[in-house]
Specification:
Blueprint (H helix, E strand, L loop, with lengths): L1 H13 L1 H30 L10 E8 L2 E3 L1 E2 L1 H7 L6 E15 L6 E8 L3 H4 L4 E4 L14 E4 L1 H7 L10 E4 L2 E9 L16 E4 L13 E7 L5 H18 L9 E6 H6 L3 H32 L1 H9 L4 H37 L18 H26 L4 H6 L13 H33 L9 E6 L9 H16 L4 E7 L8 E7 L11 E8 L3 H5 L3 E4 L13 E5 H7 L9 E4 L16 E7 L14 E5 L5 H10 L2 E7 L7 H12 L4 E5 H8 L1 H35 L1 H9 L4 H30 L15 H26 L4 H6 L2
Helix pairs in contact: 1-10, 2-8, 2-10, 2-11, 8-11, 8-13, 8-20, 10-11, 13-20, 13-22, 13-23, 14-18, 20-23, 22-23
Length: 823
């Protein structure tokens, strides 16, 4: 074995062009596979960093439309009573809180509200102090906080005496009771950057509140299976329905799902498609290297024949040749490991595509034992795959014929190149499949960019401000803040119009049921449900959302004024197919008998306008029915809940580049409120982020497609160039006997293009069959789009033609005299 290895290294060093070409192809193929696997590993395979991660589950709502992990206080109180199957049931959500150190500018921190069992559920290490007690987690419990290790070192200088000290959070005194250990990190599954400061949720265990604004998780009890827990939760739904008859419909229920499965279910299909696509790149690279080895084996026929003649067995020859292929694959694997992980980290630092569990800028994607094992297996497997065929082919020479051959070239073209021809056909077919896939995703990206979102994102600046402060517990206090802030912003030279809202387009909102006043209820407590947004006057002008009918909000829609609401076109189409919506009124959030506690006092609202549709969930989703309510007219209970859970969003339309006035805007808002802002972004950035996953898919598939195209072109060119070289004598004889150069050129091009045509036909049929695999990733284009299935083969055909034309041009330049004299 060592002698084979030493001999292999010597022979590869003596053939640097062959060695570099083979290693480069393998580095590309293995590196691309390693890159995708490192993401698959981080997202799908690595267990969550918690005790018994397979027993960690989300509580789920189920319905015929699907399931989701949203939780309400009433549901969480019910779920935590299911102690026969789960333990450590915990509620949690993320927020922004304001920390005031006194004597300086307050700072906004990433906050997390969690119930008392949350840290026990995740096995959080405590560096100093303790976490929340059950008493502190009850309604109106003591104001306490737990610091993350990072915040403690950054903001408090690692001062151990901070435990027990009172700090000001959201305008209220709060006692620090503990510091979490440095290894505690919920960034893998939290959704966004993890909290820096933790506060008790303080939910009422007897609550009837049906508002869904957080998630809940638990751990399966020892000995309880997932199916047993699901059955128990589904059975318990009947008990919940008896207590809250209007909160859960007959076809709705409860369940549990493993946390990791819920986190990755929306990205699993995408990652599997990318993994399948990148495996094609590896197969094409293997075909290329196998062709190189076949060419190399042909040139070494005399050497191999002599070794066989003096006693070397076929197994010994195969072993030597496989050693060469394995050395090449291991070298390509080492380089591919480094290049692949570095490349995907660089890509994720620009665009994480909204992937869960990859961390900020892809920080959690890296090299671990799984990635190393995968790359090792792929390297060895590809070494055997691309090395075995050439080894078997070269190890059975016709000894007599080979030894008698002169040192010159011989061969009759494709009849002696059948295996190389088959490999080229396979390369072309695989390359076409990747080209079709990348073209479909490119068309998807273009279609998304062409979607009219229903608003104008140009020159719009957005920022968030936490108003979780007793000062803003009433709706009129929020109204005064908004009015003062907007007036200040409008006075700035670079500002055209300003407003405030709960929710920025494309970043989600609340959902509430409603009753159309005067219309009888046929089933259920509501006539329907829709998105519910609070906005201040100027909102529609900031985003240039057109009013199709009626009017937008103005300063007269204030506290104490007649309650009003604006609906969108989707709402009008669904619920007012006949009649005039402007003559109707809505009762939002309750049906008069039960519903959300925060909206029981909400009066009927007159519809005063119909706004154009906005693609608010995502650009590839249809607009949903939406209700816009003036910020100043929401009930005090709803205002208190909003201020506690949702930072207010300031939106500003500027006359120039939005970031150019960012500092001035932040200063005016600080003067108006005494509070800082965070998440300063332009709407163009928000729109770009909303389609980041599609752009990520498109970019990777385009890279794979281009790599496949390049490798296929090299494969065709290499085969034809070698064929011309082997047939130099034959071509010389043809020219000497009177064949014109056009005949020779057509002969070479025809032979090469026939191979490409076979590959194109196979690839086109395969692409047509596999197109449905990427159907869920597409938008604005059908899986079997005629343009794609026409353009992709044409592009590959042109590339193939170039690959065969260059050797054909060399063939017609053969000097018959020199060609014949060479023999």
């Amino acid at each position: 074995m060592l002698s084979d290895l030493r001999y292999t290294i010597r022979t590869l060093v003596k053939a640097p062009a062959f060695t570099l070409a083979a290693i480069a192809a393998l580095t590309l193929g293995i590196g691309a596979n390693t890159a995708i696997f490192s993401v698959v590993n981080a997202v799908l395979l690595k267990p969550i960093d918690a005790p018994d991660p397979d027993r960690l589950v989300f509580f789920m709502n189920t319905s015929p439309q699907g399931s989701g992990p949203a939780a309400s206080p009433a549901k969480f109180a019910h779920w935590r009573r299911q102690t026969s199957v789960v333990e450590n049931a915990s509620a949690f959500n993320n927020n922004v809180v304001t920390y005031d150190a006194g004597g300086g500018v307050p700072e906004q921190l990433r906050g997390g509200r969690v119930s008392a069992d949350f840290f026990r559920l995740l096995g959080a290490p405590v560096f100093s102090g303790r976490t929340f007690s059950a008493e502190e987690d009850r309604p109106r419990g003591q104001n306490v906080a737990v610091l993350s290790y990072g915040l403690w070192t950054r903001r408090f200088g690692s001062d151990p005496s901070v435990v027990g000290r009172s700090i000001t959070i959201g305008g209220e005194a709060c006692t620090v009771i503990g510091i979490l250990g440095p290894t505690f990190d919920v960034g893998q599954w939290w959704g966004g950057e993890p909290p820096e400061l933790w506060l008790p949720f303080q939910l009422d265990t007897e609550s009837s509140d049906q508002g869904h604004y957080f998630r809940a998780a638990a751990r399966l009890k020892p000995g309880v299976t997932l199916d047993q827990a699901k059955a128990q939760l589904q059975t318990s739904a009947a008990v919940f329905r008896e207590r809250f008859p209007t909160a859960l419909q007959a076809n709705q229920g409860f369940s549990v799902e493993r946390v990791q499965e819920v986190l990755v279910r929306n990205v699993r299909p995408m990652l599997l498609v990318l993994a399948g696509a990148v495996s094609f790149v590896l197969l094409i690279a293997c075909a290329n290297v196998a062709n190189l080895l076949l060419v190399r084996a042909t040139s070494r026929r005399r050497e191999i024949a002599i070794r066989a003649a003096i006693g070397a067995g076929r197994g010994r020859i195969i072993s030597q040749l496989l050693t060469e292929s394995l050395v090449l694959s291991v070298a390509g694997g080492v380089l591919g490991l480094l290049v692949g992980v570095a490349g995907i980290r660089a890509l994720l630092s620009i665009n994480t595509a909204g992937l869960p569990r990859v961390g900020v800028e892809g920080a959690l994607v890296g090299i671990d034992w799984r990635v190393v094992l995968f790359t090792s297996v792929v390297s060895i497997g590809t070494g055997i795959l691309f090395g075995l065929i050439p080894a078997l082919h070269a190890s059975r020479p016709d000894l007599s014929a080979t030894i008698k051959e002169s040192a010159g070239r011989s061969g009759t073209g494709f009849r002696q190149n059948k295996m190389r021809s088959v490999l080229v056909v396979a390369e072309v077919a695989l390359a076409l499949i990747l080209l079709v896939g990348s073209a479909l995703l490119i068309r998807t990206s273009l279609a998304l960019r062409a979607v009219d979102p229903g608003f104008d994102p140009t020159n719009v600046l957005t920022m968030r401000m936490s108003i979780a402060n007793p000062r803003f517990a009433k709706a009129d206090a929020v109204e005064r803040l908004v009015r003062d802030g907007v007036e200040r912003l409008r006075s700035l030279p670079g500002v055209e119009v300003a407003s405030a809202t709960c929710c920025v387009p494309l970043e989600g909102g609340y959902g509430l049921g409603f009753v159309i006043q005067g219309r009888p209820l046929t089933e259920g407590p509501f006539h329907g449900g829709g998105q519910w947004l609070t906005v201040s006057p100027g909102y529609f002008e900031v985003f240039r959302i057109a009013m199709k009918r009626g009017r937008s909000f103005n300063d007269r829609d204030a506290t104490g004024a007649p309650p009003v609401v604006i609906i969108n076109e989707a709402f009008a189409r669904r619920y007012f197919k006949e009649g005039d919506p402007l003559s109707e009124s809505l009762v939002i959030g309750h049906s008069g008998s039960a519903g959300m506690r925060e909206f029981m006092t909400d009066p009927p609202r007159q519809i005063v306008g119909v706004a154009s549709d906005v693609h608010d969930g995502a650009l590839n989703l249809d607009p949903v029915p939406t209700m816009y309510v003036p910020e100043a007219q929401i009930p005090d209970a709803a205002a208190a809940l909003n201020s506690r859970l949702t930072p207010i969003a300031w939106v500003v339309r500027t006359r120039s580049a939005p970031y150019s006035v960012s500092a001035a805007v932040q200063e005016q808002l600080r003067q108006a409120s005494g509070l800082p802002v965070s998440d300063v972004r332009s709407m163009e950035d928000v729109v770009s982020r909303s389609i980041s996953r599609q752009r990520f898919n498109m970019l990777l598939m385009t890279v794979f497609g281009c790599a496949a195209l390049l490798l296929a072109a090299i494969g065709i060119y290499g085969l034809m160039a070698y064929s011309v070289e082997q047939r130099t004598q034959e071509i010389g004889i043809r020219l000497a006997l009177g064949a014109n150069t056009g005949d020779v050129r057509r002969m070479v091009i025809g032979q090469g293009m026939r191979l490409a045509a076979v590959g194109l036909v196979i690839g086109l049929a395969s692409s047509f069959a596999l197109a449905r695999v990427v159907a869920n990733l597409l938008f604005g284009v059908t899986p079997r789009d005629p343009l794609v299935f026409t353009a992709a083969p044409l592009v590959l055909a042109v590339v193939a033609f170039v690959g065969v034309y260059l050797p054909a041009r060399r063939a017609v330049r053969v000097d018959p005299v020199i060609a014949l004299r060479a023999e």
